[in-house]
Amino acid sequence: MKICFVLNDIATERCGTSVLLMTAAFNRGHEVYVMGVGDFNFHHNEPITILTTQAPKNTKTKSPQKYLEALQGSRVRRKKITAKNLDVLFIRNNPTEEESGREWAEQAGVAFGRMMQQQGVLVLNDAFALSHAFIDKLYFEELPGEIKPDSLITRSKDEILDFWDKHDKKMVLKPLEGSGGKDVFLIDENEKNVNQIIETISSQGYVIAQEFLPAVKDGDVRILLMNGRVMVKDGKQAIIRRLSGEGEFRSNFALGATADSSDLTPEMQRIVDLTAPKLIRDGLFFVGLDIVKDKLIEINVLSPGGMEHFKDIGLPDFTHIVIESIERKVEYKEMYGNQLSNRVLATMD
Fold it and tell me: Phi/psi class of residue 336: alpha, beta or left (left: φ > 0; alpha: ψ in -120 to 50)?
C-alpha cells in the first residue's frame, strides 16, 4: 500500500499520533510518504503531483521517536510523485496549529485532498466531509441537543452578555475557529474584564459561548472512534481522561494536563450512539470526541490525537488496528472499483 500522510510541516512535527500511525504503517511493510501542506503542485489538465519525504533506505526502528528523527534527518529521500499513483492520502495536518503568516496553509490540505479524491485516491477522512466540518464547532452544533451543553455562536456582545446572565454569570468563551485551549476563558461573576475579553475574541471572528459544566473539575475524556465505533484492542477501549493542571479548567495536554484512565460510562456510550450515525454517513473515519460527564464538549475531525499518551495509562498500541482498517478499505476499493464512493469507503469496517 502506498500511503501519504499530510502534516503541517515535517520539520516542526512532534512525536504524536500522526507519527505513531506512520511508524505502524512503515513497520507493516507499506510504502510510507510524508508531506507538508505546502507540498502540493497543480497544473491545469494534469494530475496533481506532490513533493514527498521518505525515511532513509534500510531504516529499521519500531520507535516512533526514532522514525521521526529519521524523517527530519539529512539522509531522507525526497521525491516528486503523481498523486493518483497513491493508494491513500491521510490528511493529518491541524489548521489550528498554524502560526501567523501561514494562513494559506489552514485549508490547503482539505482543498487539495478534494481534488485528489476526484482523481481516484482514497482520502481519509473524506475530504468533502472535512470541508463541511472544517469549522468543527459549527459541525458540532448539528448534533442532537441532548448530548451538548447550551451554547451560543455570535459576534454580538449584547447577545453574549444576555447568555451570561441566563447562566447565572458563568460561561466559557472561545473563538469559533481554534483549539488547543488557546483564547479559552472561564467567565464568572467576579470577572472584571468581561467586555474586553468579548471584544478581543470577537475581533478574531465569531465567538462561541458555552454553559459551564461543573464536572470539568474532574477533567474531560477523549474517546477515539474509528468507522463510527470506539476502538477496542485486547479488551481495552481507546479512552483517555485528561486531568487539568493546578488552577486550570482547560484539559489540554499542551497546557499541562495529565493522562488518566477512564471507563466507558452509559452516558458516554449514549453520546457515541447518537454521534456515530452522522460520522459514518459523512465519511469521517477517524474522530475524537471530548466529553465531560454526560455532555459532548468538542468533536475533533481534522487531526484527532492523544494516542501518544496511551502507554502512560496502560493502554495497548492501537495504531496497527487503524492501519489494518485502512488496508481493508484499499482492498474494498480494488474489488469494487468505482461502485463505492470515497465517502462510503472511508467508514467501511
Answer: alpha
Domain locations in the chain as residue ranges: 2-124, 136-144+215-317, 150-212
pLDDT at 100: 84
Strands 77-82 and 185-187 come out as unpaired
Contacts 24+ apart (CB under 8 A), 185-190: 186/212, 186/249, 188/212
**Coil, strand, or helix at residue 109?**
helix
Q: What tens digit of pLDDT does each residue of 20-76 get?
A: 999 999 999 999 999 999 999 999 888 999 999 999 988 988 899 999 999 999 999
- What's the predicted TM-score (pTM) here? 0.93
CA dihedral 140, 297, 264, 221 (to 10 degrees): 130
CATH architecture of 150-212: 2-Layer Sandwich (3.30)
What's the CATH class of domain 136-144+215-317? alpha beta
Phi then psi for 131, rounded to 5 degrees?
-60, -45
Q: What local confidence, expressed as pLDDT, does residue 309 receive?
A: 95
Q: Is the CATH number 1.10.1130.10 carried by domain 2-124?
A: no
